[in-house]
Amino acid sequence: MQQAGGEMGTGDKENHSSEPHSSVLKTPLKQAATSHSVLTEIQPQCQPLTTPPKPKEMLPADPWTPTSNLKMLISAASPEIRNREQRRELSNNASVVLQAKHCLQEHLSGDEYEKTQPSRKEKSLGLLCHKFLARYPDYPSTAENNYICLDEVAEELNVERRRIYDILNVLESLHMVSRLAKNRYAWHGRHNLSKTLQALKKVGEANKYTQQIQMIKKREYEHEFDLDGERNEDMARSFGSNEHSEMSFVELPGMEFRAASVNSRKDKSLRVMSQKFVMLFLVSTPQIVSLEVAAKILIGEDQLEDLDKSKFKTKIRRLYDIANVLSSLALIKKVHVTEERGRKPAFKWTGPEVLPSTQDTKLETTSTTCPPPISEPIPSKEQCSKNLFPSRGKQNFTRHPSLIKLVKSIENDRRKIQSAPTSPVKISASTQQDLAAFPSEMAQLPAMTKHQLEEQSKKAKEVKMKLSGSALECGLSLPEVVPKPEPPCTAAAVQQPALTQPLSTCPPSHSSVSPVILPHTPSGVSYTIYLHPSQAHTVTTYSPSFMLQPLPGANVTGIKSINSKVLNKITTEEGDNQVATDDVTKTLTTTERPTIKSETASQQCLKRSQALQESHLIKRYRRDEENLDTSLGDSTENERPPSNSSQMTHEMDNFHEKRQNKTETLDQNMASCYDQCRREDIPEDEDKIKTKQDIPVAFAIPAPETFFPSGYLIPLTQCAHGNKAGFLNKEKTGTCSLQHTTYSSPIAGVIPVTASELKAVNIPAFHITPLNIMLSPTSIAAAPVLSNSCLNSSNTSSAPNPSSSVLNFTLQQVGLIPAGVQVPANPVLQHMVVPSQPENISHSSENFQEGKVSKTTLHLPHGWVEWEVYCGNSSTAGNIFN
DNA sequence: CCATCCCGCCATTGG
DNA sequence: CCAATGGCGGGATGG
């Protein structure tokens, strides 16, 4: 697949018309429409009135297949072309187009034989969606005409309009498009995505989806019997707002209804269903949602569950439709969860991490039902801006005093920045320019490309996890570092009450994260950490046993030993073993590269380093590493919601996006803030304080052994954030400093980390303490062993693990383990380094609960490290260590 | 057989 | 009233 895209360019859709082939008509050509299609995109409007030609009488054999590929390519390319040429005139395009045509024709002739009959797959919604997305840039500039003319699209893509509606409906649910009028939609791309997701998450939390999911699962387990009264209790769920049932469509402030029409419709399914579906991902911890559960929740929401079979079936069907679109957007990917009963289809969120919803954010969830704020006579741009930078005015949270300064500076920056209008639709010219400025063309890369990349990266692998689950809770938190500007990281968990449940939520105190500081790592790596149960003990005061396992492809299945109840085992199978293997291989390869090409790596390092320095951050980090730690974490916590530490990052991103120019200034500010934070660190929250107390000294000092590293580091399979994230990062990075060539690694968003790089950065050690986890090379080394043993003992079916050699290699490469150390074979899957937010080191932690998986992300100046920790218990572990 | 999900009938809406 | 939308579920398809 890869395609040609780049070169060919192409353009447009026009081909259709040109394509001759008798035999192949592409389809119904509807009448003439094609002729001017080329410019279509350019033209702001589509023919308004027209009715679509629907007659679809296609030739019986419509061979659009041969062409289809080409078309796709072309379509994919078109956006890119646009970017390149950006303002170029049409003339150029025309030429390009022509070329493209030629290419196509050639292909056709050549390939004629090829393949494809219209097999069902080729008509799949997912594919169609890709084609559709390929036509528009992810981040359209205002300048472009981002109008979508339904008729044209349908025609060009050769599909019935009905299908287009399916796509548009889900895109609409994400606010990636909005309906303007009859046959017209406006394309917003991903500009609103983060806001939308935030809003959805919020609503999802409000709906207590988390709890609902748990109930459903619980029930399942207890299957047969069932009706416990509990359910009712739980069900009690939302009071307040949504209760009546459904909240309907969630809107964003900036984009309410453009065309009166849109709103009116009481949307029934797709749109709303899509939003709800997304919410489920956003609120659930492993971010994996099975179709079954989703369907039940979506159905049951209103009505008590009547397990209507047909209804259920229909729901599932719809969910597949939605899932296909979401998959095309790279927001989710299909996986399977294996439970005792067998494996069930499920989807895993691979989209951007949800920012913690900022409270202030004014996203409003407008529900049809309860139209609270209908005041929305369309927010002015200003409002939008506010929304974007909610914190601006006053903050609701309590901030740690030390942070105040930071905040101020940040706010100042924001103000400066604010001038740029946020509203998606209208971006001020200035903004645009800025954007243009960046190196990033990336922003506008054609969706296709991204997807492709993603897929590649996806090949990566799968994860298996088993969770053991008893109700124990472990409070484990990772250290956080907070660098910059906003201390968004809140203590994990602290904030959302909604989620809390009797059972497992970790007590805040536990949850609180201890701040650990990480110096900067050049690149981020995702790892999964397996903790040995025994160690876990050590680690967690509370939980007796806790095991962390990552599961990726490795077949960690074995963990049964872990105690008790395995509530479920989730297997992600993207590819299956093979894939896993491949992944490993890839990983290895990737890893190797650096080694091999030391030069390159070095260079990269340098670049990165330079970049950092430029930002000034680096210096600070290094110097103070030690200190850091502590304080930062705290500060971080204050502000935002628990779930992500990433918030900060995100904000930063926004920042950057908004104003790249000022980067330097910003950085400086940040840096200063950062310093302050460090110095001041005094914990404010009680919880936090407690935490600290509990955990004495520990973090500040890097004493590896002390803290037991029972962990096992495993690279995560795939970064949660799909390639898109990568791209974003790129953009950002580019903006801030230099563009890192590195990023262009073959696999989107994945960068191998080399030991040298790490060293250069001075990677801090991580230790795991009851409250925080820090990793140190030393500890890590030890850890693997442990986990391994653990696995073995328990091991079940586990397939052959990726070779230990691979693992060792990988870890060593990364510098996580000393050369001499051997890590037993086990699950290592892949390690990915995702380039990311240039600056901060923010880190988020989440609570660990037994039987649950928590993801922790540590944001470093040039990337982030992500772990997934699974708690379970096991017995074996003890001896291993040492 | 079964997980997916294409296809398109036909009810609703909007204009 | 007619076209645009979009719910919905039969039944095809690939594994």
TrEMBL record:
GO terms for molecular function: DNA-binding transcription factor activity, RNA polymerase II-specific; RNA polymerase II cis-regulatory region sequence-specific DNA binding. GO terms for cellular component: RNA polymerase II transcription regulator complex. The keyword ATP-binding does not apply. Its main location: nucleus. Residues 120-189, 265-351 form the E2F/DP family winged-helix DNA-binding domain. One of its GO terms (biological process) is negative regulation of DNA-templated transcription. It is found in: Nucleus. Residues 32-49, 597-609, 629-649 have a biased composition (Polar residues). Residues 1-56, 348-384, 590-609, 617-650 are annotated as: Disordered. Pfam families: WHD_E2F_TDP. Keywords: Activator, Cell cycle, DNA-binding, Nucleus, Repressor, Transcription, Transcription regulation. Residues 10-19 have a biased composition (Basic and acidic residues). Belongs to the E2F/DP family. PANTHER family: TRANSCRIPTION FACTOR E2F (PTHR12081), TRANSCRIPTION FACTOR E2F8 (PTHR12081:SF40). This is Transcription factor E2F8. It comes from Strigops habroptila (Kakapo).
